[in-house]
Amino acid sequence: MGLRAELSVADLGASARFYVDVLGFTLDRSDTGYVSVGRDGIVLGLAALADRPPAAEHDAAEDGVRAGRGAGVELVLELDGGPAAVDALYEHALGSGAVIAAPPEDGPSGQRAVRLVDPDGYFLRVTPAADAVRLAVASTPPPPYTAVIFTSVRTPFDESGYGETAAAMERLAAEQPGYLGIESARHGLGITVSYWAGPADAKAWKAVAEHRLAQRLGREQWYRCYRVRVATVDSE
Q: Are 93 and 22 in contact, with CB atoms under 8 Å apart?
């Protein structure tokens, strides 16, 4: 089974230029009222709204979708080349005058992403291809040291706010005395392990004001359930 996306666009020329000049697609087909562009196996169709059948010939609900065609739609473009490719595309998009919804940032899983908006209001999230994401394994010194193990199950609430806060906390933790590294993974159940030189350093991190605020937001909004365990690593 295959999937091909086709977008209804107000200005076919402007939309085609965005995908070709900004996102690096190639023009595969150009007919009256329709353009097909492609990149790395992705095929995207662009259809001019003026060339759609008159309103009387299609369902009223379909008209409603077209009227707000960009609302609730996000296309995900996965790039080869890792996070550097995402940053490079962002710089190119910025120089091209494209609308940037969110600059490059690292999510809680370490995956970098930038969000753009095309001329018709469709959102595009650009990330490294799944097999290009480097899984970060903390480089820790010889034991003993302290591990803080945070296990959680998320709520569906405020995904963007959660991701931004998680990334900010990772950066802040790295600035604290005794910090050794962090590892994180989420697939339904989330596990984040931060490593510290000793239990006093881990306790001091818990008490940092910004971290305390993030903990409160987690309890109130982001976690259905969670557990924190503090352990001493005696051997590897």
A: yes
Beta strands in 64-155 (DSSP E): 74-79, 99-106, 112-117, 123-128, 145-154
Nearest CA to 47 among 35, 37, 61, 55?
Answer: 35
CA distances 60 to 28, 50, 120, 157, Å, are 32, 17, 21, 32
Gap between the Cα atoms of 217 and 215, Å rounded: 6
Residue 74 Rama label (left phi>0; alpha psi -120 to 50; beta): beta
Flag whether pLDDT at 137 surpasses 50: yes
> For helices 209-217 and 199-206, what crossing angle results, to 10°?
70
pLDDT single digits (tens) 163-220: 778 878 988 999 999 999 998 877 678 899 999 999 999 999 999 999 999 999 999 9
pLDDT above 60 for 109 = no
Distance CA 166, CA 189 (A): 16
pLDDT score recorded for residue 56:
40
Bridge partners (DSSP) listed for residue 189: 153, 187
| Structural contact between residues 191 and 109, judged by C-beta atoms closer than 8 angstroms | no
